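FOLDING PROBLEM:
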Amino acid sequence: MTKAEFKHYDLTLVEPAFDSPLTDLIIDLNHLRKKRLDGTTPSQIFFNLKSIFHMLESIGSARIEGNNTSLLEYIETKLEEKVDVPMGVKEIQNIESAMDFIENNVKKHPINRAFVSEIHRMVVEGLPTSPKGEGDKTPGQYRKSNLQIIKSKHLPPEWVLVDEYMNELFDFINQDSGPKFDLLKTAIAHHRFVWIHPFGNGNGRIVRLFTYAMLIKLGFNVNVGRIINPTAVFCNHRNNYYKYLEQADTGEKSGILAWCEYVLRGLKEEIEKIDKLLDYDYLAKEILVPTINHSLERKYITDVEAKILRMAIEKKMIQSSDLKEIFQGKHGAELSRQIKRLVDKKMLQRIGFKDYCLSFGDNYLLRGIMKVLGDKGFLPHLDGK
């Protein structure tokens, strides 16, 4: 392999040709950014799904860096709320916490050194340090030594230049260049962050969270309904991720534009795919009912539970009185007990005073919906695990 070398190039916006596929992508994504989210899926179910995508995004981000925690292992640990967990699970939990921090704070605060440093502290917290671990000896602080990126021809800048390059990056992303450049800036900033490699460890995890924060800042806002899953763009085709990063490392316009097209095409595909979940007819028929069928076939749930859950899917919301259709001749107290059993099992969640809707807090329902979502192409590939 060719020896890694550092090659400086100026950080600047590159503009695609008017008739290029990249320009079409920018136009389409700006339309999606402004599109009003008027779906028919109840918000409680939609945000329940959002938590699943967050979990998968965190697993995907960790797996890009070599974390071998299996999907089932993480589900078990999460549902049982264990205190002592393996380091691989702890790494994923840290990423989830950082995502929550971003969602709760990025609208109110600029994306600057303090913001990114806090994300870094959260991501490496409690993890053993490198070379064997995924932690960092100086959480939240830029590296104080030179480093190399494994299998990369690019050599990051010397550590004494990191502060200068990062200040330039923050100025770049916070400068008002006009909405038409926002998405280009997001893709370019992702590459520049990797190019700088500002921290001693955790740069890959941090840059994906950094990109997540920029997208929310741009209006792809999970808090009003849309799920965005940028990690799926990168972990579905890892080899492409590294291939296009390498093209951008040259600093040449063609390489940077190729990288931008790769990122924005993947983002558009993810948004369009996940927006289908706002259509409740689609969600019920293609995802929710198959989930119940899958769980019943494997005897994870009983026939009675399946009937109640299918009713909850059909009606969107149910009350205990609705169960008279299933339990004819039973008194109200027995109907309430049936509802309570499913609430206790986290298959239903209470909404308001009397209403209940489907929930995926149960171990087996969660396994079922993840399988169905995976079969329908909604989840990042996790090497079959």
Summary: The chain has two domains: 21-278, 280-375. The mean pLDDT is 87. Residues 134 and 202 are 7 Å apart (CA to CA).
